[in-house]
From TrEMBL:
Gene Ontology BP terms: negative regulation of DNA-templated transcription; regulation of secondary metabolite biosynthetic process
This protein's record includes keyword Ribosomal protein: no
Key word Transcription regulation present: yes
Sample GO molecular function, one term: transcription cis-regulatory region binding
GO cellular component, one term: cytosol
Listed name of the protein: Transcriptional repressor
A Pfam family matched in the record: FUR
Length: 175
């Protein structure tokens, strides 16, 4: 099976204008909620903003702390509810292996397979999506009489800078 990706993956470790990542996530949320009629309350929006501000998945308590650091006292239950909402709307994903959440980094259909490339060292997480893989896996699951709850693949490994770092200054580049 060849993995057909729907778009070239963004490399979040590369230099980029990070404010665009946050702005895009919020714009997509406004659009998506406008279409579905779901309410993007100030808290839900704020939680998404904090998530989108990190390319490393954040745990619920980390989120509560970050909100607290900017003077917002938010009960953990409210943050959990906001996260449930964001995940339900496809605006954020749960990264099971890290027990954490990340803002959805790209536009994709709800039944596409989402692949997370997760760095062991720095936690940097890149999201890929594949429609073709989603279709193939859905077919394979159906053939096995299985009803999947989610179509998420988490792949641990090393991001480019961490791989470089592990190789050490002696290897690779001659300086
Ligand atoms: Zn970014
Ligand atoms: Zn996504
Ligand atoms: Zn890394």
């Amino acid at each position: 099976m060849t993995i057909q990706l729907d778009a070239t993956p963004k490399a979040p470790h590369a230099e980029h204008d990070h404010s665009i990542c946050v702005a895009e996530a919020l714009a997509r949320a406004e659009l998506c909620c406008g279409e579905s009629g779901a309410r993007l309350t100030p808290l839900r929006r704020r939680v998404l903003e904090v998530l989108a501000d990190s390319h490393v998945p954040l745990g619920a308590y980390e989120l509560v702390e970050r909100l607290g650091a900017s003077g917002e006292k938010t009960p953990p239950m409210s943050v959990y509810r906001a996260l449930d909402f964001l995940v339900g709307e496809g605006l954020a994903h749960r990264v099971e292996s890290r027990n954490a959440y990340i803002a959805c980094g790209r536009e994709h259909a709800a039944d596409d397979v989402v692949v997370f490339l997760i760095c062991d060292d720095c936690g940097l997480t890149t999201e890929l999506a594949s429609h073709a893989m989603g279709r193939d896996l859905a077919w394979a699951a159906r053939s096995a009489g299985f009803s999947p709850r989610a179509s998420v693949v988490e792949i641990p490994g090393l991001c480019a800078p961490c791989a470089e770092h592990r190789r050490g200054p002696a290897a690779g580049k001659d300086r």
